[in-house]
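INPUT
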Amino acid sequence: MKIFVDTHSGVPIYKQIVRQIEKGIMAGLLKPGDQLPTVREVALELTINPNTVARAYRELEHAGLIESIQGRGSFIAADLPRPSGGDKEMIIIEKIEELLREARQLNISPDKLEKMFKKALENEQS
Amino acid sequence: MGKGCLSVKSLSKDYGQKKALAGVSLEVKEGEIMGLVGPNGAGKTTLIKLVMGLIKPSSGLVSVFGRDEKELGAEDRRRIGYIADEPFFYDFMTVQQTIEFNQGFYPDWDHEKCAGLMQRFHLPPDEPVKNLSRGMKAQLALILVLAQKPDLLLLDEPLEGLDPMRRLEFLNLVLEDFMEREGRGVLISSHYLEELERLADRVAFLHEGRLLRVAEMEQLKVEEKTIRVVFQKEPPEALLNMPGIKAVQKEGKTGYLLTIEDNFNAIYEACCNYPHFILEIYHRSLEDMFMDYSGRDQ
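OUTPUT
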């Protein structure tokens, strides 16, 4: 999976790499056991500091998403952590809070928002 | 990252009344790439020349590989690679002669690397250096410094005269060399801030001889932002006085532009929680910070 970084983004480069690999895993582009390019390879491919790549890989390892085997390389973890019930709720709660903020900024009243949401749910179910 | 590759303490250089460098303290650790940023005349070249021992400090200390620069032996000096802002060559020599002249100083010269890079850059070996373009001279300077296998690399505006593709190629070669052995250090000054954003672990901002700030690149990305917020009513003063807000500019009746350099998350949360019409985040690039620091009167 090719990795892209945007140096103009306000998101640190290591975080961009972490998120891309997370998404790749979620989308099935990266499967358990797939080998990742080495830190060196990524650094040279993207012309970025290897410490940045190493940091991304460390974070992914810490999250249980990749495994680094001395002398062999880094691989997508064989058993990926499944988001727990609590985690899933956290993700949705964050999205809801984001939606509330946006609606507030656009001056959409809570009543209107509730109506819009109900309509969207109905459309989804039909 | 380990101990110091390079350490300067309270380093100053005066030219008569003019302070080219004033009390600068800075460290480049092993395994680190340090970017040096500042407008022309900020003292970047002076700092690098002091580290190289090409000029003597008015006060302060330079340590390289843990030793006082004045006491470095020939062997240690050979571990320092340097590309000057205007690389000096004997114009009458050919490319090949220049290489042979240089390699004589380094018993550990990497012949294979040298030959490989000559091929890669397509440098004509029998061409007198004076006929080379600026970009080709930069490439030759790079070959000479990498074949030396330095443990500390000092690059003073090395990317001048290179087109975007060649800039990336140059940096890739620096990276490749940097990764070859543990514990190497790089100090690179450049006006090509986007390139520095890719490469540097930390960045030092120089202005009028003074060190204004040193920060981790990743931290700068997270903390350096501009927030545009138009509140519904005048916000509490405490909000506008939050630590980390570098500058406040009023926009319209209840609007503000906040320049943030630290504590971004807390400040953003505070703005979110106060009724507002718009709340936008603009990321500040290294270039924006450069403009900011260069515009200051110190």
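end of record. Chain A touches chain B at residues 7-14, 40, 43-44, 46-52, 55, 101, 104-105, 107 (CB under 8 Å).
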